[in-house]
Amino acid sequence: MYTMKLERLLSIIILLLNRRMVQAKELAERFEVSVRTIYRDIEAINRAGIPIVTYQGTNGGIGLAEGYRLDRNVLTNDELAAIVTALQSISTSYGNEQNLQLMEKINSVVPSSSSEDFRDKTNRVLVDHSPWDGNERLRPKLLLLKEAVDRCLVVNFTYSNANGEVSYRAVEPHRLILKGRQWYLQAYCLEKKEFRLFKLKRMKELAIEREQPFSRRELPAQESLAGKTVNDPSMAIEFVLRFQADSHHLAEEYFGIEEIVPMADGSWQVRKAYPEDEWLYSFILGFGHHVEVLEPLHLRETIASRAQQIANIYRNDKAT
């Protein structure tokens, strides 16, 4: 959400630099927010030191103070390049037309004498958040939820939690969160009367209640979110894994070279703490014969039991 607001503020500034005056209603329609939100944006821009004046009357509107020009010291080429880099990275998972337009606008204010160097700076780093199989199925949900968040409209959906329990939810959407390549919605649940996190991949039959607006609530601190959070320390258990001697590359890839400890027999140990849930079981089983759970005992037994269940499926003598 902070990225969305930043791109809107920058777009308004660039638009006012290129036009003498624009109406608040036009800006609201352009960025799909309320007129009230636009006036809050204008106040934020004023506080940042860029003087914006509101002109009353039939031909009135919003414009920069007469004679004002954006000081090049306000945003340097390096700062503009950092913004473009951030937008390019977020667009790998959350791409929309506004992002592309904003990047074009930023490129347009860079002097032609610096354009080649500017392009080079924006291509030095790219954080690709997209999964290997793409985001095409998730993109419609993201766009719909962005609209609901921006316009403060209630959404409803059918939700399947981590235990496979299915329920109907009506919520007030407040923020989209990307964590560990997974998208979540932070929303106030009208049934539970508290903020919850919902994974977008577990949502079905998502719809906006266009006639049911809501007033934004104060977001709780991350550590006080009701229910299980994206990264809740209270849900974590400490465990120890032993990787085979010839499998240290797997341990390095998933945990980092600083996290693995060489043992006298040539194996490698990793001590970590993750929430114990279906994801953890699948994660450990995904290493196959390369890893062994040493502790705690109950996790070792759970993995052994599930491995046996998998082996039973592939038994050669299994009746057909």
TrEMBL record:
Pfam families, sorted: HTH_11, WCX, WYL
Domain of life: Bacteria
Keywords: Transcription, Transcription regulation
Coiled coil: none
Residue span(s) of domain HTH deoR-type: 5-60
UniProt cross-references to InterPro entries, sorted A to Z: CBASS_pafABC_assoc_protein (IPR051534), DeoR_HTH (IPR001034), HTH_11 (IPR013196), PafC-like (IPR028349), WCX_dom (IPR057727), WH-like_DNA-bd_sf (IPR036388), WH_DNA-bd_sf (IPR036390), WYL_dom (IPR026881)
GO MF, one annotated term: DNA-binding transcription factor activity
Protein name per Swiss-Prot or TrEMBL: HTH-type transcriptional regulator YobV
Gene behind the chain: yobV
